[in-house]
Every structure is written in C-alpha cells, then in structure tokens.
Specification:
alpha/beta; 2 domains; six-stranded mixed β-sheet; Rossmann fold; about 20% strand; single chain; about 260 residues
C-alpha cells in the first residue's frame, strides 16, 4: 500500500496562498501521493492540528501569520534557527515529538549567501513579526537595521536579535538590500516612497496574482529581486524535505509553480 501524505497550512488569511500549488507540485516531482490544504485557523485550531500531527493523521504543518509565535511555543523542540528567531513556520514529527523549524530563516540564509546578495554589506528589514525575526536570525553577524510602523516592537526585535539599530518607518537606508517582511504589496499597495530608490536590491515577501508594485519598480530599475513566490518556493523545498525526507530541485519546482494557475 502506498503512503499518502497529508500536509496543511494554518493561518489567517490563507485563501490567497500559493503553498498548496507549490507542495502539490513537489509531490508530483517526487512521485509521492498526497495533498496539501490551506486552512483558516486560530490558535485553537493550531493546537488541534498539532495533535493530529502527533497521532499521524497529519504529516506536516506550515504556519503563516499570525501563528508563527504560537507554533514556536507549542513545539516540543526547535531547530537553532527557530530558537534564535523565536518563530516557527514548519512543524514535523521527530524523535523529540513535534519539532519546529524556521524554513523562512533558512531560505533567507540561502538567498543572502549566494548570487546577487552575497556581497551586500547592509540590510534594511521592514516589519517586526515572525518573518522579520527570521530575516534577522539568518543575517546574524551582518549589519541589519529594522524599521516598522510599531517602533516599540521594532526596538524590541532589534534588541533581542542584535540588529544594528532601528530606523524610523519610511526612512531609507542608502546602499542597503531592502527586505519587505510586511504585508505591504499583497493588495497592490506600495512601500513608503523613497525606499527602493536608494536600495541595491529587494527581497519582497508579499505576493499576489501579479507582481507587487515594489517588485515591478525594482525590476524596472534593474535591481536584483527575489519576489514572494521565489521566497515561498525556497522555504517550501526545506519544509518538504523535513516532512518526507525527499529533496526537490528548487529550479524544477520554481518552474512548475510559475507555470501553474
């Protein structure tokens, strides 16, 4: 009898998510049977899902906003990157029980250690939530600045993860790579004016049915760009490996996802 994998994404909102398409493509590319569903969820539903993961009714869970902190707390053990970020977006069974990982942080690390961003000296992270924390964890030891509309949360995050400091919301940092870890762009809304104009690259986590205004502007300016779909695919490769033990080639998966509706 063949094994049928059951994966789920929990958070709110999730109706827009491309994660089901990405992981279904990964299942096809690895000749595995299974499905991946997106469920609008609160902390109570997360607790129930983790019990299903323990029992074997689920084989893996992804978590998106606003549940990454709750997922961190509920995990029996966390990977070092997840401990540093205090944020979990991937839950899986291990010998320790339910283990939490931040494949967001691992994806950030891979992006900045290769290609266009490898020689970047400074980074400006927009946001103060779980994704921003993952970015700071991945960039430990580099010059990283935090900017968020909630200055107190930005200061707390920067202090906890040893960032270079906090920059007022909307203020640019010349010569930095801009990391947008906020929802801005998901609804075709723009980043504060002037940020991209002095940046040397963009990592933009939001995505929709078309490129965000920030991605379009950065590409038009000839800047190196990682958009939300590429980022999501990179972290999905890592989550899928946690759940199945199988590796998926990033380029093949990205091509399959870009070609899907």
């Amino acid at each position: 009898m063949s094994l049928f994998y059951r994966f789920a994404l929990l958070g709110d909102p999730v109706s827009h998510s491309r994660s089901p398409a990405i992981h279904r493509a990964a299942l096809r590319l690895t000749d595995l049977e299974g499905d991946y569903v997106a469920l609008r969820a609160d902390e109570r539903i997360l607790v129930d899902a983790v019990e299903q993961l323990r029992s074997g009714s689920l084989d893996g869970i992804n978590v998106t906003m606003p549940l990454k902190g709750a997922a961190f707390e509920i995990a029996d053990r966390r990977t070092p990157l997840a401990e540093l970020a205090r944020s979990v977006n991937t839950l899986y069974r291990s010998e320790a029980g339910v283990e939490g990982d931040s494949t967001d942080a691992a994806a950030f690390a891979a992006i900045v250690e290769e290609g266009d961003f490898r020689r970047a000296e400074e980074f400006l992270v927009l946001g103060a939530g779980g994704s921003a924390a993952a970015a700071l964890a991945a960039l430990e030891g580099r010059k990283v600045w935090v900017s968020a509309r909630n200055a107190e949360r930005a200061q707390a995050l920067a202090g906890r993860l040893g960032a270079s400091g906090v920059i007022p919301w909307g203020q640019a940092l010349r010569g930095s790579v801009l990391i947008n870890a906020t929802p801005l762009g998901m609804a075709a809304n723009s980043l504060p004016e002037g940020l991209l104009e002095v940046s040397i690259g963009l990592i933009d986590l939001p995505y929709g049915s078309s490129p965000t205004p920030a991605v379009e502007a950065a590409r038009a300016a000839g800047l190196p760009v990682v958009d939300g779909i590429e980022f999501l695919t990179r972290q999905a490769v890592l989550s899928f490996q946690r759940w199945t033990g199988r590796s998926v080639d990033f380029e093949r998966l990205a091509e399959a996802v870009r070609g899907s509706p």
